[in-house]
């Protein structure tokens, strides 16, 4: 009955009017619908670069534990050899977000590369050091002075590990110009020590624990030359990317801090994730020193490393830590 009444010209006009009204209503509601999808339904794509060592590992935890998905992000996570290669990938547009140490980012900014930290990363704590200067178990070296005329391996020549080691050597009476620094990837450092290719190596976890299990021992905690507690690494992006993608940055910061808090309280579970990405033995991960992760960005935890970079000529001018930080709304 109802269907037969809707076949007349008047009813056809009514149907056309109804269609127009509904169409206008949908158009009016479109901004709200888009906003709802952007914050809840459709995850935002984000290309993230990380390195498979404990100090740089939060993104792996966020990916595997679902913190990125919970924050509404669809993350494509790529592993790089070190912070320098991550910085190159971000600068070249190969990835959107990366992690690198303070000296790398400050040096880039000083050379007009518009990097900005927007989330804190791995912290150094002297009472639970995840990076140290190691030597072979059978080394004759017993004092810092004996490194003169010898070589020390670092992951990157102009980053925090090299500068901290130079500062520690200088504090202990060494003529740093008489020490050669060689760039070697973390996994290759233990063999280089035991072969005698280098006299020392600045190694971070999990490679540090591997080295201790394979003929090496800790000689000094060289990062103490900077301070007892400071930020080693942080999450950064190009300033232009952050300006154009504030929502993606906000979601990433929320997820990475949630991952950091979780990892700080769940060493066994986070170690299992690190095992997968770092290709290390589970028993090694279970006993190694673990990094603590920042839960906010504090310029005071960055400034010391910047000042050290200036002292050793890696950074040409004094930089205030606030220059490296972009504000991201929570």
Commentary on this structure:
The chain is an alpha/beta fold. 45% of the residues lie in helices and 20% in strands. The chain has 14 helices and 13 strands. It has helices spanning 2-5, 9-41, 58-64, 67-70, 83-91, 102-110, 160-171, 186-195, 207-213, 239-244, 246-265, 267-278, 282-287, 303-311, and strands spanning 44-51, 73-80, 98-101, 115-120, 122-125, 131-136, 151-154, 180-183, 200-204, 216-220, 229-231, 233-238, 292-293. The strands form four sheets. Strands 8-7-9-6-10 form a five-stranded mixed sheet, sandwiched between helices. Strands 3-12-4 form a three-stranded antiparallel sheet, sandwiched between helices. A three-stranded antiparallel sheet has the order 11-5-13. The radius of gyration is 26 Å and the shape is globular. It starts with a helix and ends in a 19-residue tail after the last helix.
Q: What's the gist of this structure?
A:
With 330 residues, the protein is α/β, with parallel strands linked by helices.
Features:
three-stranded antiparallel beta sheet; disordered N terminus; alpha/beta; five-stranded mixed beta sheet; 330 residues; 45% helix; 13 strands
Topology (SSEs and partners):
Elements: H1 2-5, H2 9-41, E1 44-51, H3 58-64, H4 67-70, E2 73-80, H5 83-91, E3 98-101, H6 102-110, E4 115-120, E5 122-125, E6 131-136, E7 151-154, H7 160-171, E8 180-183, H8 186-195, E9 200-204, H9 207-213, E10 216-220, E11 229-231, E12 233-238, H10 239-244, H11 246-265, H12 267-278, H13 282-287, E13 292-293, H14 303-311
Parallel strand pairs: 1-2, 7-8, 7-9
Antiparallel strand pairs: 3-12, 4-12, 5-11, 5-13, 6-9, 6-10
């Amino acid at each position: 009955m109802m269907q037969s009444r809707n076949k007349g010209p008047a009813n056809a006009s009514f149907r056309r009017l109804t269609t127009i009204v509904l169409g206008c209503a949908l158009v009016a509601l479109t901004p709200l619908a888009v906003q709802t999808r952007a914050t809840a339904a459709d995850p935002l794509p984000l290309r993230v670069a990380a390195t498979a060592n404990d100090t740089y590992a939060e993104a792996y935890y966020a990916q595997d534990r679902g913190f990125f998905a919970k924050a509404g992000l669809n993350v494509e996570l790529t592993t790089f050899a070190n912070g320098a290669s991550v910085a190159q990938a971000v600068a070249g547009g190969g990835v959107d977000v990366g992690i690198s140490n303070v000296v790398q980012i400050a040096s880039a900014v000083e050379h007009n590369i518009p990097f900005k930290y927007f989330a804190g990363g791995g912290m150094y704590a002297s009472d639970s050091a995840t990076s140290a200067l190691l030597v072979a178990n059978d080394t004759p070296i017993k004092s810092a002075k004996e490194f003169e005329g010898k070589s020390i391996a670092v992951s990157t020549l102009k980053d925090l590990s090299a500068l901290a080691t130079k500062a520690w050597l200088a504090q202990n009476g060494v003529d740093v110009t008489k020490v050669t620094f060689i760039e070697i990837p973390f996994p290759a450092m233990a063999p280089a020590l035991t072969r005698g290719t280098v006299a020392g190596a600045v190694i971070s976890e999990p490679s540090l624990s591997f080295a201790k299990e394979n003929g090496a021992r800790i000689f000094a905690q060289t990062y103490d030359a900077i301070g007892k507690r400071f930020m080693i690494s942080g999450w950064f992006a190009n300033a232009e990317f952050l300006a154009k993608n504030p929502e993606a940055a906000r979601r990433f910061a929320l997820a990475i801090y949630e991952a950091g808090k979780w990892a700080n309280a769940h060493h066994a579970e986070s170690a299992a994730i690190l095992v997968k990405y770092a290709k290390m033995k589970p028993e090694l991960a279970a006993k190694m020193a673990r990094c603590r992760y920042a839960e906010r960005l504090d310029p005071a935890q960055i400034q010391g490393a910047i000042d050290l970079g200036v002292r050793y000529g890696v950074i040409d001018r004094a930089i205030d830590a606030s220059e490296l930080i972009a504000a991201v709304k929570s």
